[in-house]
Amino acid sequence: GAGVISIKSGREIDTMARAGRIVFDTLELMRTLVRPGLSTEDLDREAEAFIRSHPGATPSFKGLYDFPKTLCTSIDEEIVHGIPSPKRVLHEGSIVSVDVGVCVDGLHADSATTIPVGRVAPDVQRLLDVTERSLYAGIAAARSGNHVGDIGNAVQRVAEGAGFGVVRELVGHGIGTRFHEEPQIPNFGVPKRGPQLKPGMTLAIEPMITIGSPATRTLTDKWTVVTQDGSLSAHFEHTVVVTEGEARILTK
Ligand code: MG
Ligand code: MG
């Protein structure tokens, strides 16, 4: 859509940074918990309790578009939006993408990371490293005066340069008083195209990268998005605010 991109006040950005700190600490907690034998339901329960232990903080995902849980937990060929379940048990050598949002005083923050379960194969670790590197390339391109296309182009160059696929159907987004705001932020693009970035814009940048083809399909649970070819996928995300200089990461 061609809607207006909101500019946040300093006070709103401070609140988003408070939410972002809880998001970061939640993902750090998940990193310490992930191990073979644990279910994604276990992770979800711990995450929800941790978030709610902060006065005024609530999980953003629970109830958003009727999503039932605090986390999205997406294992191996699952790209995003996996629903935590006691039936989904983590196995050595797998990867699990954990995505979480937190709301504080009506403002949201959103971040995701992909965590190895025990020891993973070198090509799998490389997928994680490249996906995270593509996120930081996207963040570095999120400068005042640049355009949304500069972010996507930076992500795409890193990921495709490493021989990986860039998911097209799912994109990053503006974030603030609503979880999903303008603009959409594809992980591919052409420099100088798309809306121009200005200080005070808050963006969730989130590359979803595949070892094989980036073509997707959605499972019959109507949520879980997987790679069509069954290849592994990684997802890293930060919420940032555009400034006069380098973007400031609010989920770190
Ligand atoms: Mg997210
Ligand atoms: Mg997001």
Secondary-structure blueprint:
Blueprint lengths: L9 H24 L6 H13 L4 E3 L11 E5 L2 E3 L14 E10 L2 E10 L5 H19 L7 H14 L3 E2 L5 E3 L6 E5 L16 E4 L2 E3 L5 E3 L6 E3 L5 E3 L2 E4 L6 E2 L3
The site of one magnesium ion has 6 residues, from β4 and β5.
Tell me briefly what this model is.
With 252 residues, the protein is α+β, with helices and mostly antiparallel strands. The protein has helices spanning 10-33, 40-52, 122-140, 148-161, and strands at 57-59, 71-75, 78-80, 95-104, 107-116, 165-166, 172-174, 181-185, 202-205, 208-210, 216-218, 225-227, 233-235, 238-241, 248-249.
Protein described:
The structure is a single chain. With 252 residues, this protein is an alpha+beta fold. The strands form four sheets. The protein has a five-stranded antiparallel beta sheet. The chain is globular, with a radius of gyration of 17 Å. 52% of the residues are buried. Bound molecules: magnesium ion (2 copies). The site of one magnesium ion has 5 residues, from loops.
List keywords for this structure.
five-stranded antiparallel β-sheet; 25% strand; 4 helices; globular; 252 residues; four-stranded antiparallel β-sheet; alpha+beta; binds magnesium ion
Rg result: 17 Å
Report the strand count: 15
Characterize the overall form: globular
Mean pLDDT: 97
Low-confidence stretches: none
| Ligand set | magnesium ion
Write the H/E string, N to C: HHEEEEEHHEEEEEEEEEE
Largest sheet geometry: 5 strands, antiparallel
- Structural class, please? alpha+beta
Distance between the termini: 29 Å
Our count of helices gives 4
In percent terms, what proportion of residues is strand?
Answer: 25-35%
Estimated helix fraction = 25-40%
Strand order of the main beta sheet, please? 8-7-9-14-15
